[in-house]
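Subject: complex prediction, re-run

Hi both,

The earlier run crashed halfway through, so I resubmitted it with identical inputs.
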Amino acid sequence: MIIPDFALPRTSRGYGLTSKERIWLIVHQIPHGKVASYGQVARMADLPGYARYVGYVMKTLPSDTRLPWYRVVNSQGKISFPPGTSQYLRQKSLLEEEGIVFIDGRFSMGQYRWQLR
DNA sequence: AGGGTGACGGGCC
DNA sequence: GGGCCCGCCACCC
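This time it finished cleanly. Structure:
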């Protein structure tokens, strides 16, 4: 591209996509049965340090989104909703439908983390 | 406009 | 391990 990345504002860096759009693209690529942490999604979107922003973008998705938002979890292998809430339960069952096994409200990031190559 | 607010993360007991 | 604490940073009043 003509304008180097470092000269562009963070929010429009890379392929002319907004940071929100690049986050959507990463989440879209998380495979069935795998998960990615908020921080991982941020790094893969070339936005290191933007974990909280990834959470915000997930929160603002339309309710009928086709994006697999539920595959985004925290780095501790837990769901980032208060246990017992309807949102927690919905995300947990969606993950369990994909084969992710919870033990004491937690699953193994080592086993389920999406890793390239 | 600026300070409070998180679907975070890592470090340190 | 599990809290707690603090840095993080775009959003939203």
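The helical segments of chain A are 19-29, 38-44, 51-59, 86-97, 109-112.

- K.
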